[in-house]
Amino acid sequence: MKNSILTATMVLAIVATACKTTKTTNSESEKGKKTMDVSNQEKTLAVLKSIETGAQEPVAYINPTKYIQHNLGVADGLAGFGDLLQALPANSAKVNTVRAFTDGDFVFTQTEYEFFGPKIGFDIFRFEDGLIVEHWDNLQVNTGKSNPSGHTMIDGATKIADLDKTKANKEVVKNFVTDILVNGDMSKISAYFDGDNYIQHNPNIPDQLSGLGATLEALAKQGIFMKYDRIHTVLGEGNFVLAVSEGHFGEDHNSFYDLFRIENGKIAEHWDVVEKIAPKENWKNQNGKFNFPK
To answer: pTM, whole model, 2 decimals?
Structure first.
């Protein structure tokens, strides 16, 4: 029942906001100033948490006339988002955002969800003039089990550091994904790590670079290969960098979201979410999974 009420409230708010776009009153100007006082990251966290709480106010952080949806299982615009919420079982949603970062007009987050079942997700929001205008995400079922080294998909370091090294760290990740995951040039892999030191949060892979290598070798013996075809975007803040890529795991066409923590120019920690891309005939919007601004 709560989700139905939330959806109706959101739709009313969308319509009301859209109708006011051609006329600005003094009170609206004051409201706009207050909105600008809230950071884009704070707005993002509020919107995500409202999925759980049913709070109405965060809808004001979304541009109702420009909102573009890239989750292929959700219809475009705020109406599509409202329909999704309405389909949720009552009082079932839980949202625990563990990491949030800002890169220019983008905010990207890592969240533990109870959303049609337990999931781990990365979300990317693009802002224009202080309002959300575009959304991408990647979701994977959370089994709740630790990987062979005892790490979950969501635990580990959270402190953002080395803000002055953001550009350099993004370059490290871009080069790593290109050299190793796209081009498969394993002769270069050791240059990206501090010896064998490497913390892994993929639920099926243990720590250490040797652990990654052993897992990939075992999969290859079973005829299962992971191949990245291309990088679509790289976002970062300080020592954390997110790479969004497209490729194949076995026979599946996948979207790969990889979050790396960089320490002294080397990859120190890794989280990921892998999502199978639905056939195009099943898409609920035609915006594309990877259509990022150039």
So the answer is: 0.90
